[in-house]
Here is the input.
Amino acid sequence: MLLAEDHHVVRAAIASLLGKEADLEVVGEISEASGLLDAVRVVKPDVLVLDAHMPGQKVIEAARELHARHPEVAVLILSAYNRREYVVGMLGAGACGYVLKDDPPEALPAAVRAARAGRQWLSPRVTELLVKSASDDERIVEELTEREQEVLRLMSTGLRNEAIADALDITEQTVKNHVRSIFGKLGVETRVEAVLYAISQGWVSPDTPGSEEGSA
Here is the structure.
């Protein structure tokens, strides 16, 4: 993985923590967001652990550009800020997870493994924040069709579009169309937001987001 963190002591501590895991390897480090694209192109990491605040460029813009150019790289945000706008902004930019810097030490390796496996991972406190935010949201949403509800339930188990298509015996493009419709009806921009809103309404089980096995 590539580690992007501008504070040298913090970066060294994170690298040391991850380096103790036999199945994880830090293959590069960077201290400025402006060098992310070049670093990813050279190092070719499977996961980028990215500090939410770095000098050189707005991190959310860097994450969005990185996701567009290198969708194969899982971007995992590491942040000291537990605020909805940060979380939603980063997930909307293509990040696959959001870990808080004061989470337990085992959280980051678990999140990296989830990201590497193509799953999303949220800090439990971030999940709690987003579920509460969705619960307090009084927006009026359009009713989902039966098929859209099926797709949303499968999304909540961590399945991606291809797997959902196989499960429902439909094409992947049809799944993408359903997901787009779900986003529009719920007024959300990311899969995590859709699942969290569904959880807050009691439409799906809350077992998924925020755990190593969970994704959306």
Summary: The CA atoms of residues 130 and 193 lie 8 Å apart. Residues 2-122 form a domain with the Rossmann fold fold (CATH 3.40.50.2300). The longest helix spans residues 172-186.
